[in-house]
Each structure stands twice: as structure tokens, then as C-alpha cells.
């Protein structure tokens, strides 16, 4: 049984993007399987994902965070300026509907994605810096995400910044703190390490459930608007994510980072915690009360759901490109 769990964990960690996309497709054609994933259920699942992140944080990571305040500060500034402003600019360039706009703005205003640490490892980046950046941006999220959304959102849409602050605090910071505390006290025990090693698979399943639940919510809108809506959002998500990689790498070059750190800041800036954006969109904009008054509010979760899958795919591809560049250089050298 234990070997089966390990095999499933390895499979999900290796094929995260394919699994998330498969669940999204299944949710579209068999909505009853994912219809239960909404509201508080989505928040609980996100909390479990963030708990899994906390379980990987060690005292060495905390010490590294303290040792590199300048680099971490620079990374946090890049995270919370580049992606929100690129998102806002794209909403204006494409003339997006206010609720579609709030979806991509939410993605831009969220912290770095948990999977960015794995991608940084695959890209031969600075993994310690990656973990530190993810920690810093996530701990800042309760303050930065609501403020940025409030600032950038269309004035016709009411933004509950206080509620968003509390929600992020409950479903991100608290679970991370609990996970870190458990790792601190039990991290050397063999049973705990086994449990710890399977948590990435739990995160993947959690992300897939959140995306599936979102697809069920927006299914009527997708059926009504068809391929045109998907193509539009894919174009926006592609540019948002791609510009994040390019501008993040440019920041590293500007401040003369070494190659590993340039790759890391590129991935950290480009890969967002779109799962968090999805939960926030469902809780504060596509909630039943608002949908009753504004059915089009369901659109806000579409960019978040697509970003969940797309960021995982593009980040993995980028990491593979970086790794291929190293192999090519080694052969030539």
C-alpha cells in the first residue's frame, strides 16, 4: 500500500499539468463530480495546499530569509509591481469586461506559486532563494493582494479588501505557520518524513479540485460564449505569464544576479499562486449573492482557472529550456 502511495505521489508530481488539465476537462463534461468544490470547501482545500508548503519549510530556510534581506526585498518588489501592473495593462489593451479584468488582476496580485520552487530546482536555479521569495511574497499577501486589487480593480466592482485580508490570513499564513511548526518539532522522525514526501501529491490533487470546481461554476458562461472567450483569455494569460518571465529575468540582469538567481527570479515572478486567485474570485466576486445580481460575475474565475493550469505547463517548459541550455553548453565546452 505504501509503495502504491509513493508511486501515485511520483506520478502526480511529474505530471501535474496533465492531471490538472484532465480534471478540468472531466469537470466540464461531468460537472457533478466537482460541483461540491466551492465556497468554504475551496478555502479549506487551499489551506491544505498551503499547509503542505509549510511542512517543507525548515529553520535553515528561515535563517536564509534573514541573511538575504536585500535580495528577498528586491524579489518581493518585483513580484508585487511587475505582475499586477502587467495584468492591469493587458486588461486595458484587450478591453476586457470588468469581471474578466478582475480575474487576471487577481492572478497578478497574488504571491508566487508553490510549484515555482520545484520549477526552480528543475531549471538549476537558486532553490534557497526561490523558497525564500515564495515565503516572503506569501507572508506579504494578506496586506499586498487586497490593497493592489482595491487599487487596480474597475471602480464599478466593489472590493471587500478587509474580507480578502482575513481570508488570505486564514487560508495561507496560518496553515503555513502550522506546517512549519510541525516540521520544526517532528521533522526528524521517519514517519513524519514519509508523510512529508507525499504532501506534494496532496497539493496537486487540491489544485485540480479547485480548478474543477471553477470549471463547473463557469461552465454556463463557457457554453454561452464558446471558443472566442477561451481564445481571448488564453491570449491574455499567455502574455501575462510570458512577460512575467522576461521582466523577472531582466530585473536579475539589471542587478547583476548570477545565472541561477536570474532563472529563479524569472520563474518566481512569472508563476503565480493562481489557486489562491481562484479561491478569492469565487469567495468575493463570483459568490452566490453577487451572481444572483450579476450573472456575468462568473467570468472572473475563468482567467484564474486557466492560469492554474497554464502557469504549471509554461513553468515546467521554461525549466526544461534552461536545463537544455546547460546541457548544450556542457557539450560545447
From TrEMBL:
Keywords: Membrane, Transmembrane, Transmembrane helix. It is found in: Membrane. It comes from the Bacteria. Pfam families: SBF. The chain crosses the membrane at residues 12-37, 43-60, 72-94, 100-123, 135-153, 165-186, 198-218, 230-252, 264-285, 297-323. PANTHER family: P3 PROTEIN-RELATED, SODIUM-BILE ACID COTRANSPORTER. It is a multi-pass membrane protein. The keyword Aminoacyl-tRNA synthetase does not apply. This is Bile acid:sodium symporter.
